[in-house]
Amino acid sequence: MKKEYKAIIFDLDGTLVDTLPASRQSFKILLRNRHIDIKDFDIDAYAGAPTKTILLFLKKKYGLKDTIIDLRMERRNIFFSLITKKSLLFKGVEPSIRKLSKKYKLAIATGSSFASLFQVTTKELRNLFGVIVTIDDVKKGKPNPDQLLLAARKLKTDPSRCLMVGDSRFDQIAANKAKMDSIGVLTGAVSKKDLMIAGAENVLRNVNELSKIL
């Protein structure tokens, strides 16, 4: 990479934890409960966006009568039922993050709620991050840069010395708006081409490859 970074900010879902299959299924079940069938690409187009953003899209497209609050709670309960007692960390993530934590300040900036983050991560992993920012901490999630800028402030690091790592187009766009470099990873639902178009400096197969280039 072209500069010396002081901090790395990671996305969560699809980057550190393999939650996308369960997340996708939870939205499909939510609509199936209302006799509506949707395809994977209807959800994957919004991969990395806050749940509220996805629900607003689905509510408008399918004319759902429920409130966003009710839809969000039902979707969350479905999601939690799908991930119960499953190990969701991508292989090698914890030792890779542990290694990076010895050199860099680390943060998570996720479009998920803290309740969801708590369910899909281990205490050991959470303890490796000095800062955790969830959708509960800001008014607007990615692709708005607020989460990344908040994480940088809490890390006491200038955004220009932070590196963003994420699997979605929204991660890359948010990083660009925050004046941060970004790296895409292919553990989500987005192609290398689309990540590069969205502004990624580089695209790796997974976060375990970070140590090869930093």
Written overview of the protein:
The protein is globular and about 50 Å long. The chain starts with 6 loop residues before the first strand and ends with a helix. The chain folds into 2 domains: 138 residues, 3-Layer(aba) Sandwich (Rossmann fold), CATH 3.40.50; 64 residues, DNA polymerase, domain 1. The protein has 11 helices and 6 strands. With 214 residues, it is α/β, with parallel strands linked by helices. The longest helix is centred in the middle third of the chain and has 16 residues. Helix 1 crosses helix 4 and helix 9 packs parallel to helix 10.
> What are the secondary-structure elements, in order, as H or E?
EHHHHHEHHEHEHEHEH
Please give the count of helices. 11
The proportion of strand residues reads: 5-15%
Global morphology: globular
Q: How many discrete structural domains? A: 2
